[in-house]
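Hi C.,

You asked whether I'd gotten around to modeling the 469-residue construct. I have! Everything is below, sequence then structure, no commentary in between.
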Amino acid sequence: MLARALAVPGLLLGFSLGLLLALLVPVAAPASAAAPTLVLTAPAGYADQPAPTSLLLTGADGAPVGGVSVAVERQVGGAWRAVATVVTDAAGRASASVVRARVPADNVVRATWAGDPATGQPPVVATTTLGLVAKRGVVTLTGPRSVRDERSVRLVVRSTAADGTPVSGVVRVERWARGQGWRRHTAVRTDGRGRATLSVRPRVDTRWRVVTTPAAWVTGARSAVLRIDNRPPGTPVRLPKGAPAPRVEVPPQPRATMKGADPRITTIPDGVWADMVGRSWHAGCPVGREGLRLLRINYWGYDGYRYRGEVVGAASAIGSMSRALTAMYQRRFPIRSMYRVDRFGWSSRVNGADDHRSMAAGNTSAFNCRWVVNKPGVTSPHSWGRALDVNTWENPYRSATGLVPNDWWQPRTHPRVAWRSRSHPVVQLFLRAGFRWTYGSGDSQHFDAAGGHGRVRAPSPRVCGGICH
């Protein structure tokens, strides 16, 4: 009995120790199942065309998963949008057609399988990007080949891909002009048809082209060059065969911008006066700054274009000059140039601005406090600002020592730019405007404003040796 009694507690003790050891020894967990695999692929291609997007779904054991639905979505503007729901075949494959967008960010596609709770297979997602192959861009620029100066022309831009697909976007318009090279003129945006128009108003001969910026779906392009010839609004002067060109060349003056002659008379601005002092005006001149005025006025050039010129004249004569030059403009009688004589610098030969060079350039001018050309010490009528010399190259002056600036034109006349008698329409025009053609054909360029108050008497023809130019 004692042995049995002792055996029972020992048995209980052994059972308790066995249970404790069983609790302390770890039990191996079952191996976790492999995840299913979803592969999504699509070939690169052109925008706006469908991309065959294929998917392959295999289970955790590598076997195809067929007969299940897979959702296909694409990203548009940062948000996912449904494209289609496809069902895999026995090989675990399915496909969906997704149109490639022009914007790469909108070509991200994903496929989602919800998984199978019954077999313990979790959801799976696959993502891919539809690659773009850029189409070749084509851009054209069309418009007229010529334009009359001061008028606008309409240019048309057409931007497409090589297959004719319209391209909308910003197009850079470039302009070329002599002495400037190619420069950016403006930018226009083509519409949904790939078209844009712009209006340009070139004042010189120009060349034009347009350049597009490359995009992911289309390459950049540059158009052929469009040449636009700028044609004069007036009739260019046709000179006789063999007529000599002026010995002094001056650049064209600024093109006129306002309509008509647009005469503007002002007092002498500081900048103009600074140019005059030491050239056309100096101490001892019979008229000062307060007695002079500046006339700016449009005129027709020999090339048929309109220019803006200027002359300085006496306050008492500037109105007559304005009327005469306005009448020349209205009748379209051309003037070679109309620079202030200060442009030609000081000349010790005439003790004033260089009238020899001004005449040799064919320049029209008025005030110049100087001596009579080729008569040193004799004050010219131009010193009072009431005389105006017009188209000096074609209308020579018979000086005390010979014809100036050339002798070719003296025996010749021209219906528009050279006159040798009072019956010429330009002479008649000046006479009606209140001028005298004082020396006739001996100094056909020279006109004197009649009348005036407080005028210091100009030298007489006798003092000048016949003509006081």
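If it helps when you're writing up: Residues 1-32, 453-457 have pLDDT under 50 and may be disordered.

Thanks,
B.
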